[in-house]
Amino acid sequence: MTTRPGTRRGQRRPATRPATRGRVHSFVHSGAHGGAAFTPDALSVGARHLEVGNEWVASFAVTGFPREVHPGWLSPLLTYPGRLDVALHVEPIDPATAAARLKKQLAKLESGRRHTAEHGRLYDPQVEAATEDAYDLSSRVARGEGKLFRVGLYLTVHAGSERALSDEVAALRSLCASLLLDAKHTTYRSLQGWVSTLPMGLDLIGMRRTFDTSALSAAFPFTSPDLPAADPTSVAAPSGVLYGYNVGSQGLVHWDRFGEGMHNHNSVILGRSGAGKSYLVKLELLRSLYRGIEIAVVDPEDEYARLASAVGGTYVHLGAQNVRLNPFDLPIHTRADGRRTAPKDALVRRSLFLHTVIAVLVGGELEAAERAALDRGIAATYQSVGVTADARTWTRPAPTLRMLRDQLATAGQAGDRAAGELAARLHPFVEGAFQQLFDGQTTTNPEGHLVVFSLRDLPDELKGIGTLLVLDAVWRRVSNPAIRRPRLVVVDEAWLLMKERSGAEFLFRMAKASRKHWAGLTVCTQDTADVLGSDLGKAVVANAATQILLRQASQAIDEITHTFDLSAGERAFLLSADRGQGLLSAGTQRVAFQAIASPTEHYLVTSNPAELAEYAADGDTDESLDAEQSYVDLGWADDTAAEHQTETGEFGSVDDDTQIELDAT
């Protein structure tokens, strides 16, 4: 798309005096370090510069513009690496006045063309282009397709010394030349030029050019064409999350995973160790919280504790004393009217889920005889506590893994060899070294805008099952039809779950069904081979509408190139990318970006050991978490946990038409 801001040559320059009629709209953009002080200690005025306090400034007026521009074409000025103030002053022109001026301008241009033709001279290409533009503008104004505006564009560059100012002026003029902008010093009017770029709406220079509506909208300075969340020519603020800036154009990269037209809200982040995966994920989560998105995180390395403490989130420390998740809990929740509901096949679904849990616990697929014995054992375990196919019994306390082991052991003593072997394989999880996570009823019922499940203190043998139980608890809340809101579920280091086929299947089902419940799954892993080395892993990647690739190892780049159909340039970029640089792919759009964070955000999301040690040396440790721990970290008595579970209704279900009402007694 191209638009024409007006004629570059052959058009009389408007008067330089300030406008006295009509409304003037001014847009001012300041550099990253803020605007100049309005009350400086001293002000020294030179011919082409000012000394404002301890700063040196020089101002420019743009007198020449390119003939054709594209939306957001001024963004390179806004991403100038130094401190630069950009002011755009706009004054609408009355339609009658615009028509009269265009008619007069056309008469001049046409007269010049005829004079040239009569004397047999060659046509001036610039005059010919100006004439065509004038005719085009005149016809559009006459049809009411646009209006005319008088626009003034002024720039002020700042530096710390006179020599530095000379370098900045040279760099700015080079940048303007690359944009086909003719920037002139405000010679002997340096003070007026500086004031014209202050956020005061004053144009003391008055060097204007005529723009039409389309050209003015394209020149609006606060737009970015990189992965826009809306129309790039729109003046509306982006609705997505800021990921960083474009490595190529220096424009800002916004992306809205919950935007209209998205096939799903899932995201996958792949990168080698140290590429900045967790840093990027934490930045996205922190900025998503501002949008009211509820977030749950599976944290295998305890990297999100400081972030959760800072934003008032809930921290669930699996592996601590009296912190348990019982896989036998039925998916029961409480509606807004206080009634408890559950799916009609809740018991069957929970039994099938327990097959997945046991398969992950024992570290592999079960034999046919073992699956049959397990199915009989699960049914007998529920019946032993009075839970049957009758929905009125589902509110009774759920059985535990120890009860299932006992049922299998009893069946083994009765001659069922498969049941006996399975009971022996479950022994470490009910009486052995790994019993802490399963020895009793559920003691936690996490809720809040940010819930972090820490798995750091779980043994390596339990991190896979811990991730599975956490995802199941999160999914119950996500699929609760009584609470509809956008949610994100983050699985950091997903290879811990993907290495087991049963865990990979559960993650795949979650990726497929999240969109129906207004939720997005974020899968983050450094072991690309475990994800892309299986059909289920590739299916999880394929079901992510947003895909982010950070720096890759040379051993995995061939698989990455084949899976994501990378070009040679994209392949080379991923091999040499710095920390925090990556390739964001969303459908047919791809952009290379650099993640950026404010000092406060960096303090909350960094996991650099050197920086954390420095914070600890300054007296800023995580000890404050102990005083602010949520109730879920302290644990509840079994009766209290069951009572809270019934009152809050955290555990989700399926659609309303497949639910039944439970008897409150």
Automatic annotation (TrEMBL):
InterPro entries: P-loop_NTPase (IPR027417), P-loop_TraG (IPR043964), T4SS_component (IPR051162)
SUPFAM superfamilies for the chain: P-loop containing nucleoside triphosphate hydrolases (SSF52540)
Transmembrane segments: none
Region (Disordered): 1-23, 644-665
Composition-biased stretches (Acidic residues): 653-665
Domain TraG P-loop: 262-333, 433-581
Gene3D superfamilies the UniProt entry points to: 1.10.8.730, P-loop containing nucleotide triphosphate hydrolases (3.40.50.300)
PANTHER family per record: SLR6007 PROTEIN, UNCHARACTERIZED PROTEIN YJGR-RELATED
Name this protein carries in UniProt: Conjugal transfer protein TraC
Organism of origin: Prauserella flavalba
Lineage: Bacteria, Bacillati, Actinomycetota, Actinomycetes, Pseudonocardiales
